[in-house]
Structures are given as C-alpha cells and as structure tokens.
Amino acid sequence: MKILGIDTSCDDTSVAIVEDGNKVLSSVLSSSIDAHKDFQGVVPEIAARKHLEAILYVIDKAIKDADTSLDEIDLFAVTNRPGLLGSLLVGVGSAKALAFSLNKPLLALDHIAAHIYSPHLTNNIEFPYIALVVSGGHTIITEVHDYGEYKVVGTTLDDAVGEAFDKVAKFLNLGYPGGPIIDRLAKEGNKEAIKYPVILLNGIDEYNFSYSGLKTACVYSTKKYLKEGYEATNENIAAAFQISAIEPLYIKTLKYSQKIGIKRVTLSGGVACNSYLRERFGNSKDFECYLPALKYTTDNAAMVAGLAYYMKDKESFADYSLDCSSRVLNKKYNKNKSIK
Fold it and tell me: Do 53 and 131 have their domain in common?
C-alpha cells in the first residue's frame, strides 16, 4: 500500500510517499526558516504563506522522486492537529483536494502521534515503550502500547525545551534557530565553567518539566553560577545550559521507566538532533534507546505516511468537512488509559 503523507504543522512543508509503513519511497521538505530568521522565531502568517507557495511543488517532487503517480496512491494522510492553524489549513486543504479529485480515502492524524512513530521508520521496536518527544513546541513523556495510542505522562508547564534553546540563543544574539547553534558552541565550551541548576519538579509534577527558571538563570544570573577562574563566554554558557536543559529529560524518563518496569525508550522531535541528548540516551545502560534517523527527527511527512498505514484500520476516514486544531482534539482516556 502506497500512502502519501502531508505535514504543514509549523514552518516546514513536507510531503512523503511511504509503502507498507516503513519503506520510504520519497520524502521532500521545503523549509521557510530563512524567512523567519530576522524575527528569531516562526511568524505564523509568514509560515502559512510559505506553505501556499511550496505545497504544489513539494507534492509534485515527492511523486516524481517515488517514481509513481497519483493514481497509484492508495490513501492520503495529513496532520490536522496540533500546530499553527494557518499552516495546518494549507496541508489539510491540499490533502482534501487530492482525496476528492482521485476519490481516495483521507486520514487525519495527530502530529505528536506521528513524531512518536518516527523511530519506527528505521528501527524494529516492540511495544510497550516510553516515548520522549522534544521539540520547539513540545516536551512530552508518553507511555506507548500500540501505534497511535499513547498516554501522556508528563509535559512542560511553560517553555518547551527547544523553545528554551531558541530564547537563550536569541538573548546571546547567536542566531536562529538556536538549537543547532548552541549544540555546536557547547562542543567548544568548558562544561565545568558554569553550573546552572537542574530543575526537577516533585509531587504531582514529578514527570512534568519547567524551563522558564533555567532560561532566566542563564539570561540574567550567569555570574551567580560562574565558577572562579572561568569566563562567561558564549561557548561556556552553551555547554552549561545544554547540560542543565537535557539532564531533566534523562532523569525523568529513567524515573518513569523504573516505576513501570519498561526499559525501551524512543526519542523524537527536532531536539532529538542534539548531539549531547543523543549521546546521553544512546549510551544509557539503564534502558534500551531507539533513535530516529536525523532526517526524521524534525517535522517530516514520512512519519505521517508511515503511521497512517497502521492507523487506517483503527480510525475512521475523514470527510471533506475536516478541520484543524492548534491543540490535541481528544484528551479523554479510553478504557486502557491511553489517548487516541
């Protein structure tokens, strides 16, 4: 079965064709990141306009790269939640037009569920497992028992981890996006020079995250945490910040793994590109970690088309009244205490 997936949840226009869930025939992405650099963040209206400019070209290239035709597509899949509404509408509108014109079924999927699926594109992963989704908009620990079915265990109470990277980079005037820049500078810095706090929450928030305090400590109180004999260079700040941002991810994931006895963990989302994060989790002796290929960490449509193969018999196909949501549409727990 050939499935064409579309993802326009934020600033990347992505279309992919995947066969039988994990054979990626094509994966095409058009980034609008250059249009947002002057603003040091994604501007929703600009992102939506860039999707409109790119969507037809990206669809056409995905079809050509897969050496197939639209008539050979069996199913169209698109993310319609969560994300930027203007961006999502471009992808949903395009998917509805394709499904209608070719009289093919249409499946609407959750963007987070697609990220959780992304490591499956290059790994054989047994259920159940713990999935950590880390990006500019999300920091989520989930417990996964089947494709597209997951229980949210913890999330961020303020900034997402990727957002914190971007905000610190903006304060230091390093450029945008901040994640790759801080990752690069951290390799040149001395991690012993500065010791920012590792922020862990207790009680009902023991599996939740908070990055506003770390961001504030880094931006306004670096001298307080600077060790004698060292300088607060950008490289040293980046090295210290990166450790304090990522350690809570590992500590809380490990804590939940030990609590429920599941020793399989996956990473996904744009921050899963971070070299320190991949090393910290990938070299763990506490659990078995599955990492997606770097090209499938950031927003992409291959994860959408791949997940659709397994969800086609679980969810009803969408009709042409399909709408979008900036947030997850259904937060009700089912009888297995999962979120669909």
Answer: no
